[in-house]
Structure formats: structure tokens, C-alpha cells
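Exam prep: given the inputs below (a chain plus SAJ), describe the expected output before reading on.
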Amino acid sequence: MKHQIKITPGQYSIGVVGLGYVGLPLVLRFARRNFNVIGFDTDKHKVESLNKGKSYISHISEQEIEKVKMNFDATADTTKLSQPDAIIICVPTPLDAHREPDLTYIKNTAIEISKHLRKNQLISLESTTYPGTTREILVPELEKTGMKVGKDFFVVFSPEREDPGNKQFPAEKVPKIVGGMTKKCLQLGKMLYEQVFEKVVPVSSVEVAESAKLLENIYRSVNIALVNEMKILFDRMGINIWEVIEAAKTKPFGFHPFYPGPGLGGHCIPIDPFYLTWKAREYDLHTRFIELAGEINSYMPYYVVEKLADALNRQGKSLYKSKILIVGIAYKKDVDDARESPGIKIMKILEEKNVKKVDYYDPYIPDIRKSRQICHPVFSITFNRKTISNYDAAVIVTDHSNIDYKLLQSACGLIVDTRNVYKKDYKNVVRA
Ligand code: SAJ
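Solution:
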């Protein structure tokens, strides 16, 4: 009788490589279902923290880690990769300095898994990447062992859809796409993810699964760029883009609202599209929408600085001699993540223009020394009437819900509002 692999808690063990905002929630989901889980990470600090029951991710509590300590271990020891029956890869896929895909983490992980690969292991790649990565990079590395995918070991691609802090759609309720290298791979991948996701969506190939994820995020990047371009145009025409969007979204079908902003932040939307742009070149194609969206979204921080300079001029002040406060430095509202944040980009542009002083306030981010865009440590100011009144202008970049905007409006002589926080018109508020 053909060897039937059973995926049941207690018998079938799970390995997760990469314990970040995607990997750690996955660890907890499987561990809560009583699977034995080994978490792998090269960052020893993360490994030590987790094994002490500590969390380094703000939306994951220590209690949640405590609850799974009996069947979860974190390790940096890759020789243990032969142990788990399934290994889920959740490592970063950044862009390099030339905005090209950097698959270093995936390649290194594939090499480590290959060293310890054993029969019947199921490997799932979740990292967002260009279509073809699984088949052209991951599988060949694993087949260097002499074992054959679909026969001796199994491989699927299943895009992550983690949206940190999204209460409306907890991840287990978000359908999980799975594409397999072979039918048997797909069958196993489906069985694996059905343990922790309410709905699993099998697709016909790993490429379809890789591509679906990119489409989801390119859709956002292009539509955000569209409203950003409309904002610039309507601003010149004296039309309030925010009111236009509110009116347009009364259409119950065929329209999804996106909102203009100071630029694109985060580790998905500004980055994922360029994975497809890069791959498309192999097929002599320019992904013009993606690249145009990238151009427009990348210009937005500069646009905000231009609007700030104009507004200061109208007060007879120069940007050069002014003290500027950036309000909200996280990459999006009510999160504590500053990666690729437009706020940091705006600070950098202002510093390059030798503005007299640039500070920031963000209740979620006490300091941004870790941000690679800013080399010197920078700390959030305390936010009160006295400190706010020290600045010639404040720029609202990320409109966290827990900021006192009334205080800001009454204490600062000029506010550049990039998020339509102030619905009413105020003499000292400029929309940008
Ligand atoms: N942004 C705008 N205007 C908008 C929406 C977003 O300027 O209308 C900006 C945000 O301020 C931020 C950037 O774009 O700087 C990205 O925002 P995002 O809402 O896309 O949030 P992300 O980067 O956390 O995207 C994630 C993605 N999730 C995954 O990749 C698993 C994305 O697919 C989700 O749709 C998105 O969360 C979400 O809906 O929250």
C-alpha cells in the first residue's frame, strides 16, 4: 500500500524558518493546534527571546508564546532541519541597492535545508518572490541531494497574507493559496494548511501561487499611485481629492477607494512589484504600470517637501531657516513599523536641504536608530504645547489615531496635512 502521509498534531512536526511578522504567527497557529514546532532563525537574539517566552513583535504577546512553550522550541541550529516533517520558509525577500530582487535569504535557507533534507519532508516557500523562484531556485537546490521532488520530498509555494494588527481579517480566516510542484505536493500542502486556515485555495502550479501574491500587491501600488497623481492634479485645480474620493466611493460596485499619501512605505507594497519587473525583462517586457506607479509613489515625499517650502514661503519663512516636526514616522497608521517609511524619507530630504532642525513625533516608535535610511540615532520628541510651539511647521505623515491633532493645530503655526486629518479648513493647515 502506498505510504500515506498523515498530518496530525502530535505525530507530524512543523519547522518554520524565519521568525518574523510572518513566521512567528505561523509558529503559534500550528503550536496552538498541538503540533510540535521548531522555529529556526539566524538571529540568536530572537531565538533566545522566544525560548525565554519573550516577544519582539508588538502585536504578539508574551502570554501567547508562554502558552505554546511545551511544544515549541526556537533554534539557530540548522542541523535540526532534518527533524520536522514540514518546513515552512518565511524569510525576507528585499530589493538590493539597484532595486533588484535579493534572494540571498531564500538561497541560503535552501542550501541549509538541502544539507539535512530527508525522505517525505514537505517544504513550503511563503516569501513573496517572482514567478519561477520555487521551480528554478528552490527545487534544484534540494534535488542536489539526488532526491526527486514529488517522489522523495515535496514542495509547494503558499503566499503569506499576514496583515499585522488587522482585526477585521484575522489571518486564519484569510483564504490560503497553495500551488504544488506536483499533484502529490499540492495534496500534501493542502492537508498541511487546512490544519490552521479555514479555507485553502489550491491552484494549478507554483507559478500561479507566486503570481497571485504579486498581483494582489501590484494592484495596491498602482491604485495608490493613481490617487497620488490625481491629488497633485486636483490640488492645482483647487479641487479637494479627499472629497472626490468620498463621492466616488458611494458607487457600490466597480470602485475601491485608495487614498493619497506622502509616499509608499512598508516591506511589501514598495518592494514586491519590482520582483515582477525584474522577471519580465527575461521576456523582453517592460512592466510600465509598475514602473510608472513606482515613479509616482517615489516622488510623493519630494512633493510634500515642495508643498512645505511653498507654505513656509507664504509665511515669509525659508525652509532652510526653519525647524520642522514630522508627525507620525511609521509606514502606516497605528503600526509600530518604520520600514521604508515615507516619513523617514522626508526627514532625509529635509536634512539634505540643510533645514535648521528636523525632529519627529511618533507614539509607536520611540527611536529610529535601527532604520537603515537614517545613520544617526533619532528619538521621538515628547508631544506637548511647549515642544510643538518650537517648530515653524509640522508635517503629518502618518495619521495615528492616538495623536492629539487639536493640540497640534492650536500649538503650531503651520501644519502640512498629507492624510486629510483636518476635514475643516484652518488658516494654518495646508493639504499636501
Ligand atoms: N497607502 C496609501 N494609500 C492607500 C493605502 C496605503 O498611501 O490607500 C500607503 C500606506 O500608508 C503605506 C503603504 O501604502 O505606507 C502600504 O500600505 P498597505 O495598506 O498596503 O499596508 P501593507 O504594506 O502592510 O500591505 C499589507 C499587504 N499584505 C500582505 O502583503 C500580506 C497588502 O496585501 C494588504 O492589502 C495590506 O497589508 C492591507 O490591506 O492592510
